[in-house]
Design brief:
Blueprint: no helix or strand
Length: 71
């Protein structure tokens, strides 16, 4: 498989023309169009980083009321 990277500009009508490709006529090719601008969303990866941790009852039983044997 041969790869060819070409940069082009989209015209005002929304069309794109690529000339001078190194492939023979009749070859099937895959076309992927990506924008050169990368729009990074300002999503914080770790929103809880640096937040204080508070333990209400660190030595208490967890889900004690959910055990049917203890009822």
């Amino acid at each position: 498989m041969q790869t060819c990277r070409v940069e082009a500009t989209v015209s005002g009508s929304g069309t794109l023309t690529i000339k001078g490709l190194p492939f023979p006529e009749g070859d099937k090719v895959e076309v992927i169009v990506r924008s050169r601008k990368r729009e990074w969303k300002s999503i914080e990866r770790y929103p809880l980083r640096g937040q204080p941790i508070r333990y209400v009852d660190p030595f208490g039983s967890v889900a004690e009321d959910d055990w049917s044997v203890l009822q």
